[in-house]
């Protein structure tokens, strides 16, 4: 592939005004007629028009309705070049291509999923439908005519409003859709097939009626109710919180079962992976409900942040993704519990983005170059991109942030914008210089704040020294200084919070310190006794803090912090420290013991009935094996980490038996299942406590009846997971697996949970199990959800089972990636990123991992997607 560079951006020579598409749909010979009205921009000279194309069969070209002479154009595998076009006036092109949706295994462009025609065009899928200027800064008005056999496709959908529909000869029919909003090609969508619909209505704040429609497979209508409810709540919330109203008379969502990612925000016609639409208590977990709510909201919010204002080029991807993730995070925080949501966000950020940022795949939130854009839909662009927007809100304050965002909506509505455009709105609205802040977009790597503090009892001063640095990342050795908003708090020995304004006398707004220089010293005056510092409250900046803090100080914070997120953070830091020490002890052949400080802190939290159950559950959920590995950083031995974590858990379980028993007996909500956040928190706490109990008293036999009597999927799959992971291969575990399979054998989304639970069994035999499951009817290499559930979970979610010292699981993954790459490069590349931290493994595993990656690299016919990931990982 060719490297694309931000600095090479140039506007197109031609602008497209309208696009009139006609699709004549058949599975292996779909004819697409694409009529575009366009003209050369002034001063464009006589340059040829080069349209993008990929995997198309060229049929015909007309220029201004006359068949083009073959000397005027040339067709290549990657496009269509047309020469001698008019200088200034409008002209039309009519391009006819043929495509085969049934053979489209990449699931990009127009393809078939379970007999349904559907499209995925972001980022560069539209060029697999027709020749086009397939880039986000070419905005045009689309009209789409779809023709198909009535029997096979009674439903014909595209973006915008339905203009006309009617019968054609020989059992065919047609529909014409018109989208009045100019849009880039990546937001185009078409769906055709036989689906059921769930309808509802919404009236916007200004009184406009909107028809809401969710399309699902026949028989699954009832399972779309929660998605519909989430959609209505999202629409209302975006009006109330951000003043954003919907702008078409219909909003449609279609659920399909073969989809490369979660969902897609096509204008007025979102297409979803059915995993993020369908839910009922029997088949969906609390996590599924929360994900559905968040993703429905995310795609809906894109209507303003992404569609009305889109990206000038794909380097600006975070302009729509970071901002939209921020918006969906805020929605969930407002809808559910803000601190619980924040903890989950940070856990996710640290689990996915931090490793990305410290490994071979590190890149800035706004990258400067790429080989394959599909590989840049990353945790950095999305999650760190959202954190950057959050920091902007922290630095400017809620009101100023809102005025900047309002200006952005007003100034750039209808534009294809850049990060600079975005930041300028906040500068103009507030008079703040954001040039140093903008480094967050341009520089990769997780900053480190190294902090020291000194208390002078006689002078009653507290001195805090802060130094910032950013570790080098690929291609970026020297780093710039950043503007880091660091929230902090001080607690006195009795646990009382010291008010900053009583002690600071320095320029600190609220509780935020603005770190802009390399070294920063803050002296707090009038401090009565040595205080305990709480740093990076609410996780105000996505940084690593290096600060020597005693265990008793952390325990103090775990007890008295008023910022609930930070209270959890203190507990988590305490546990992390303990787990790192325990890993060292394991490697040194010593016995592992958990400190009383940690046990007391954990147990007093789990029993604290004043705290939300969801928080109590988060509190007792120890950092995972991957979290511990990340904090250790180098020479990782996953078996040692697993053993250490198990030993610490055993200790906690022994001491906490009574507390956990009391939770298990009392916490579950009574009555009918409800997916609300509070009940979900109670179930989460129940499962965490039950998990500990299996280490103290509860035998595997006791779990089977709990599994059998569960009346919802959260408890059922939760107990199944505990049983199978804690007692792998036991009769009880295998019985439960068999019963689960029998009951849900015809529901692939539920079977995905069954596959994932087995793929993550911490046992050397799991590789063989995964291989065996691949041979059953429940697995299909063709379906991305199945691939992610089985192979993806094994590679990304099973540290001991996947990182076998003999390297056989790496070899297995390499073989799967090579095979899958021929069908679906995007999914293959994504699954392969599970190995992004291979360089931090201990030497034996590291060598095996390198060898497996080298096997992939040696293939001559790799896709650009897998080639790019492999090269960067080995580079
Ligand atoms: N914008 C899409 C992601 C498209 C991924 C293309 N490889 C979904 C989302 O972020 O909302
Ligand atoms: Zn998005």
Q: What descriptive keywords fit this protein?
A:
875 residues; alpha+beta; Immunoglobulin-like; Zincin-like; Neutral Protease, domain 2; 5 domains; eight-stranded mixed β-sheet; five-stranded mixed β-sheet; binds (3S)-3,7-diaminoheptanoic acid
Brief sketch in words of this structure:
Belongs to the peptidase M1 family. It is an enzyme of class 3 (hydrolase). It contains 27 helices and 32 strands.
List the helices and strands and how they pair.
Blueprint: E1 4-5, E2 14-24, E3 30-40, E4 49-52, E5 57-63, E6 66-67, E7 73-76, E8 79-82, E9 91-99, E10 109-113, E11 116-120, E12 140-149, E13 155-158, E14 161-167, E15 172-183, E16 190-193, E17 196-203, E18 209-216, H1 225-242, E19 250-256, E20 263-264, E21 269-273, H2 286-301, E22 310-311, H3 317-335, H4 338-357, E23 369-370, H5 379-396, H6 398-412, E24 416-417, H7 419-430, H8 439-442, E25 448-456, E26 461-469, E27 484-491, E28 497-498, H9 500-503, E29 512-515, E30 519-524, E31 532-535, E32 544-547, H10 551-560, H11 564-587, H12 596-606, H13 613-620, H14 625-632, H15 638-666, H16 677-696, H17 700-709, H18 713-726, H19 731-744, H20 748-759, H21 766-774, H22 784-797, H23 799-802, H24 808-823, H25 825-832, H26 843-858, H27 864-874
The structure holds (3S)-3,7-diaminoheptanoic acid (B3K) and zinc ion.
Zinc ion binds at residues 298, 302, 321, 324.
